Structures are given as C-alpha cells and as structure tokens.
C-alpha cells in the first residue's frame, strides 16, 4: 500500500531563526534596560549602549562603538515606559553584521560604522560580514 503525501506530514514545527550570533562562554550577562521614552519592543540582537549602569538602545549619537546586543532569541523584549526591566546582554562573541537589529529611528550606516570600530572589538564583540570588519 502506497503512502499519500499528507500521511507523511505530522505537524509543522516552528524554529527560531538561525541567526549568525555565537556568544562565547560567559559572553551573555544580565543587565538592566533603562526606562524607555515609550513602551517599545526590542528585537533579538538589537544594538545597545551602556550608560550609567543601564543598557539603552544604541543611538546615532554614539558613533564610537556598540557596547552589546540584546539577547532575546525566543521573542522580542518589551521595554517599559514606566520602569526598567532586566535583560540578557550579548557582550562577548561573534555576530554577523546583517543580523544586528537597528533600533527604531536610527541610521543604518552610522550603526554599521560603530560596529566596525576598534572600541567595539576591544569590548569583546567581533562583527563579521562587511568590508572593513575583521
């Protein structure tokens, strides 16, 4: 007896996108996301900057470096207008430049330039996939 194609299918399996981000051992740490200007969802691997013991979405004003990336592979992180939230920060490891999420209202070219800097690499974040990047 021959099997029909629909008999070979059980159910669909969803998988988190296989992004090219490889944290080193102890490369992800708990941090505090600062209060945001508005309730906002931050995507996995959103560029972050450290400021005053808190992490904030990276902004165009910081052209010298990206301090870390939001590590939230299962779902976007919901930041709050009213208070801080705890997050996981990818600080040490290898990431592909195309997989880094641009924070809202920021410029891609400026973020790419910040990802390429020696200060970003010296902090432990190695970015690949673009000319001028090791």
Give the SSE layout:
Layout: E1 21-23, E2 28-33, E3 40-42, E4 47-51, E5 54-57, E6 68-70, E7 77-79, E8 85-90, E9 93-96, H1 108-115, H2 118-122, E10 125-128
Overall pLDDT, averaged? 84
CATH architecture: Beta Barrel
Taken together, the total number of domains comes to 1
CATH class: Mainly Beta
How would you write the strand order of the largest sheet? 2-8-6-4-5
Helix run count: 2
Low-confidence stretches: none
Number of strands: 10
- Output the helix-strand order: EEEEEEEEEHHE
Q: Mind summarizing the main beta sheet?
A: 5 strands, antiparallel
Helicity range: under 10%
Distance between the termini: 57 Å
How is the CATH topology named? Answer: Virus Head Decoration Protein, Chain: A
What is the CA-atom radius of gyration, in angstroms?
Answer: 18 Å
Helices and strands: which structural class?
mainly beta
Q: What percentage of the residues does DSSP assign to strands (E)?
A: 25-35%
Q: What would the principal axes of the Cα set say about the shape?
A: globular
CATH superfamily: Head decoration protein D
């Amino acid at each position: 007896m021959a099997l029909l194609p629909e008999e070979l299918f059980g159910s669909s399996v969803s998988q988190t996108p296989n992004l090219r981000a490889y944290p080193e051992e102890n490369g992800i740490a708990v941090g505090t996301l600062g209060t945001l200007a508005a309730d906002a969802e931050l995507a996995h691997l959103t560029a972050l900057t450290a400021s005053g013991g808190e992490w904030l979405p990276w902004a165009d004003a910081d052209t010298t470096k990206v301090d870390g990336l939001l590590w939230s592979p299962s779902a976007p992180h919901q930041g709050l207008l009213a208070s801080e939230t705890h997050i996981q920060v990818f600080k040490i490891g290898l990431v592909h430049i195309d997989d880094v999420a641009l924070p809202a209202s920021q410029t891609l070219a400026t973020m790419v330039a910040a990802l390429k800097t020696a200060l970003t690499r010296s902090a432990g974040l190695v970015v690949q996939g673009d000319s001028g990047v090791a």
